[in-house]
Structures are given as C-alpha cells and as structure tokens.
Write a structure and sequence with these properties.
heterodimer; A: mainly alpha; 8 helices; about 75% helix; about 0% strand; globular; B: mainly alpha; about 65% helix
C-alpha cells in the first residue's frame, strides 16, 4: 500500500508535467475500484461505466488542483461520489430505486454466487448514503477521516451512517450467515 | 470500563489503534456478551466481502483517446484562445475608432467647382487687367513717338 502510494505520487507528478502515459497508468490502477464503487452505488453497468469515464476525465482536468498527491485515492473518490450523486439526483423524479428491494435472505446452503447475490440484495435495502458508507469502508478500505473528506461531512456522520448500515446488514444477512455454513 | 464503552464495529472495521485493540480483546476474553457481538460483527463484515468484484466491461478511455479531447465550447475557455479573442477585439475596436470621416462627394464636388470658378474668374480678371495695361503703354508710346493722339 505504501509502495503503491509512493508510485501514485510519482505518476501524478509526471502527469502534471504533461506525461500522458503516467496518467493512463493511474487510470489502469484505479479504474476497477472506481467502477465497482459506482456500480454498487448507481446499480447500472452502463451508467457506472459512463460515470467512471467522467470521473477520470474530471480528475485529469483538475489534477493540478490536487493539494496533496498522497491523498489521490480520497480525492478521486470524492469526484466519483459527486458524479454518482449527481446522477442519482437526476434519476430521483422517476422514482427509480437503485437496487431491487428483494425479500430478506432465506436460510439455505448458499453457494458463493448465491451469497454474493444475497449481499447485493442486502446492500440494496440500504439507503444510498448508508450503502455508500459501506462501499467506502468495507470494499475500498478508506479510514473514517478519509470518508469524511470524500463525503464532505463530519466523522460522526460517517460513523452513524456506517453503524446503522451494519446493524441492518447484520439483521438481513443473519439467515445466510448462520445457515449458510459461515458459523 | 463497561461493555458499552467498547466499539466493536470500529474493531471489526480495523479502525482501532493497537492499544485500544488490545484493551478490547482483553475485555472480550472475559465477557461473553461482547465476544458474541464482536463475532457477529466480524461475520457480517466477512460476509460482505463475498460480494463479487466486477471487471470493468470495457476499458476506461486513456488521455490520448478522443474522449479526453476538450469539447468544442471548452476551446473558448482556454487562456490562449481568450487572449487571442481579446487582441482581435482590440484590433477591430481600434480600426473602428480610427476610421476616416464619412465622405460627402456632392459637397466636395460643389467646393471644387466653386474653387475652380473663383480661380478662373480671378485669372480672366488678371489677364484683362494686364491687357489693359499693355494697351495703355502701347498708346502712350505711340503718342510719344508720333505725336498723334490715338483715338
């Protein structure tokens, strides 16, 4: 992680001087993480891909505004957050739910793919803000302070959203956990 | 410390400092309720990791790709383009301000005609005067030389 950060810093410095290949390498490194975060947030592959493209374009255009290259990840996800919620706000009037709100997980011997779907459904039952907190913490590994920076809110708000989400997920996933051979 | 002072979610999410972790572990070793809560939270977080990570369906465009080129309207926002626009506007304004006054051809023609007429009149008057002078001189000489008065 430390090596990666150092290398990112180096790539950013080169990209700022106009080294196109350095930025292309940054895109290659971060595209999967950004895409998966957006996919779980906007729950549509095409939208997630379009927004990912927009995120990297905006990041490239404003790379010189990045104060601390060591915090590139949080900065990039801040852009991704803004773009995703801009899309979600545009969608709102249609009353579209980002995830299908399926029935709670039934207890059974779940295969990995079934467990993955169960998790996807459980995430879909959360509010967008709760889901985003889980995505940033559990799947992207950001610290509370970094999440607060990405979401532009106090750490206390981050924790509140995340903890509520975890309580809901615990309740929703309990049958899958306890009868699916995980305990 | 009582059970409520331990943040098991933060523990499961790896947010506690080393000393806090050790204290929490020490407590969990002696408290069945907290041990259960921690186990449930760890299981929940572990189960969440079962979510499959998706591959990017097609690669994100690179900087050298067309998609990274500025849009047509963004060209207008470039400092060099804006500076060129300002210079061009200054040149146009300068040209407008320094343009010659509008020409009234008829008035000029009338002025020219008037000047020509005055010059011609003056020239005719001068010639006539000189002719009259010459006539006088010739008459005077004739009278002097012949003694005959010219009629």
């Amino acid at each position: 992680m430390i090596f990666r950060e150092v290398e990112d810093r180096d790539l950013i410095a080169k990209a700022r001087k106009g080294d196109v290949e350095a930025y292309n390498l940054l895109v290659s490194r971060w595209e999967k993480r950004v895409f998966n975060y957006l996919l779980r947030l906007v729950s549509n592959r095409e939208d997630a891909l379009d927004v990912s493209q927009e995120v990297f374009l905006k990041a490239y255009q404003s790379l010189k505004k990045l104060d601390d290259p060591g915090r590139f990840g949080a900065w990039l996800f801040r852009i991704a957050h803004n773009e995703a919620f801009s899309l979600l706000r545009r969608r709102k009037p249609e009353g579209e739910m980002p995830f299908e709100t399926g029935t709670p997980v039934r207890g059974s011997e779940l295969l990995p793919i079934e467990l993955s779907l169960a998790v996807e459904r459980a995430l879909g039952r959360l509010s967008e803000e709760q889901r985003e907190a889980v995505l940033l913490k559990v799947y992207q590994g950001f610290k509370f302070e970094e999440m607060a920076e990405i979401l532009s809110c106090p750490v206390s708000t981050v924790k509140s959203r995340l903890y509520t989400a975890l309580d809901l997920l615990k309740a929703t996933l309990a049958p899958a956990i306890f009868r699916g051979g995980h305990i | 410390m009582n059970c409520e002072s331990y943040d098991w979610k933060a523990y499961a999410l790896g947010e506690l400092a080393a000393t806090q972790r050790r204290e929490a572990e020490k407590h969990a070793a002696t408290c069945e309720g907290c041990r259960d809560e921690l186990a449930h939270m760890r299981l929940t977080v572990n189960t969440l990791s079962a979510l499959r990570e998706e591959e990017v369906p097609r690669r994100i465009a690179f900087v050298s790709d067309k998609v990274f080129e500025p849009r047509w309207w963004e060209t207008f926002l470039r400092p060099t383009f804006a500076a060129a626009c300002v210079i061009a506007a200054a040149i146009v304004m300068h040209g407008y301000m320094m343009r010659p006054a509008p020409v009234d051809a008829a008035a000029i023609q009338a002025q020219v005609n008037q000047a020509v007429k005055q010059s011609v009149t003056q020239a005719v008057a001068d010639v006539e005067r000189r002719n009259a002078d010459l006539d006088n001189k010739v008459t005077t000489l004739y009278v002097k030389s012949t003694g005959i008065k010219y009629q």
